[in-house]
Specification:
The structure is a single chain. 35% of the residues lie in helices and 37% in strands. The chain is of the alpha+beta class. It has a domain at 42-110: Beta Barrel (OB fold (Dihydrolipoamide Acetyltransferase, E2P)). 13% of the residues are buried.
């Protein structure tokens, strides 16, 4: 009976420990996602806005998430509303991702 109780206690302890493991794993994944999101952000300057084509030309620093160096280039924008408050010459912080095979600005905010 004593061996049975010891085995039962060990099984219970293992079950309790294992039930907490996914929560810790999820927390770690969340932190990694947040760190990745922060590293995806790049600063740049708006050189041209083409609202009709939903495109923006940015002079930007390295796009680390894409392995691309700094340059000036045109990007599609995911949401044309991003261009409503944008002005040529503004300093901005933005993110770019590949969407349907095209480099696309997915967020854009003025740097103050």
């Amino acid at each position: 009976m004593n061996a049975f109780n010891t085995t039962l206690r060990a099984a219970f302890f293992a079950a309790v420990c294992m039930s907490g493991a996914p929560a810790f794993a999820q927390h770690g994944e969340h932190d990694q996602h947040m760190a990745a999101a922060a590293s995806d952000t790049t600063e740049g300057e708006i050189k041209k806005i083409d609202k009709a084509a939903s495109k923006i030309t940015l002079k930007h620093g390295d796009l680390k998430n894409l392995g691309m160096g700094g340059m000036t280039m045109a990007f599609r924008v995911k949401d044309a509303a991003l261009l409503d408050k944008a002005r040529q010459g503004d300093k901005v912080r933005f993110t770019v991702a590949k969407v349907d095979g095209a480099l696309t600005v997915t967020s854009l905010e003025a740097v103050k």
